[in-house]
TrEMBL record:
Belongs to the carbon-nitrogen hydrolase superfamily. NIT1/NIT2 family. This is Carbon-nitrogen hydrolase family protein. PROSITE patterns: CN_HYDROLASE, UPF0012. Residues 1-244 form the CN hydrolase domain. The keyword Magnesium does not apply. InterPro entries: C-N_Hydrolase, C-N_Hydrolase_sf, Nit1/2_C-N_Hydrolase, UPF0012_CS. CDD domains: nit. Keywords: Hydrolase. Pfam families: CN_hydrolase. One of its GO terms (molecular function) is hydrolase activity.
Length: 276
């Protein structure tokens, strides 16, 4: 399967972001993409405001649905604010739109970003309602497990997705440059290796309107942990092929995901004194 990942530098002008997303979808379709993934905060990146909280009939999903149907391709909106019932704390949701233009799956970000350093003081939970369930979606012979950005730090989430049949782990992100320089690639490769899954991580790059500096480096990793593609600086498309044979070969060679021992992990941890 041919995949396109869009690296973006989204701003506060949603109409402009959507114009660029439409052009990206047209370009990706012209290059034979069957699925296009956009990063977190793809259609709006800036401070929370009521006018940028959408529902499934809002401008972002309306555009993506129209373009998906026009080209007969699927689209992942990596992360946008969707109404939660609490106007001050919407969901940060990733929506998978099928090739007929219908929203096929919606994942609401479970783990909300928190970081306190000299450069960044952020608590996403102050203005976002966390999700409470995991989601996979089947498309053209692959099962995609959905997640968003900060979820990457929680391996239990990805193990649960893999146990539910995920072949591809999607991690659309707006990842901090402070942590990204050290953590981004190792964590993505670890999630692939631990679960013998492809990992696709389209990312924001540059500086957001509120001064948040992002890491960029959209990354695709194969089930053996090899980097298939990494975005250069700037915005654009990363193209990658998913190979069912390579996935089956990795899983045939190494059975580690099926050799876990939950009964041991959930038991008491012994603390033995070392004398002397």
């Amino acid at each position: 399967m041919r995949i396109a990942m869009a690296q973006m530098s989204s701003g506060q002008d949603r109409a402009d972001n959507l114009r660029r997303m439409a052009a990206t979808l047209d370009r990706a379709a012209g290059q034979g993409a069957e699925l296009v993934l956009f990063p977190e905060a793809c259609s709006y990146r800036g401070p929370l405001s009521a006018e940028h909280v959408e529902d499934r009939t809002g401008p972002t999903l309306s555009l993506l649905s129209e373009r998906a149907a026009r080209h007969g391709i699927a689209v992942l909106a990596g992360g946008l604010w969707l109404a939660s019932g609490d106007p001050g704390r919407p969901y940060n949701a990733s929506v998978f739109v099928g090739p007929g233009g219908e929203p096929a799956a919606e994942y609401r970000k479970v783990h909300l970003f928190r970081l306190r350093t000299a450069e960044v003081d952020e608590d996403e939970g102050a203005y976002t309602t966390p999700g409470e369930r995991l989601v996979t979606v089947s498309y053209r012979g692959f099962t995609f497990g959905l997640s968003i950005c900060y979820d990457l730090r929680f391996p239990e989430l990805y193990r649960a997705l893999a146990r539910s049949g995920a072949d591809v782990l999607c991690v659309p992100s707006n990842f901090s440059a402070v942590t990204g320089a050290v953590h981004w690639e190792p964590l993505l490769r670890a999630r692939a290796i631990e679960n013998l899954c492809y990992v696709l991580a389209p990312a924001q790059e540059g500086v957001s309107p509120d001064g948040f500096v992002t890491h960029g480096h959209s990354l695709a990793v194969d089930p053996w942990g090899r980097v298939l593609a990494c975005a250069e600086d700037g915005t654009g498309l990363v193209m990658v092929e998913l190979d069912r044979g390579a996935l089956d070969q990795a899983r045939g060679a190494l059975n580690a995901p099926n050799e876990t021992v939950p009964a041991v992990y959930g038991g008491q941890v012994a603390l033995e004194p070392a004398h002397g």
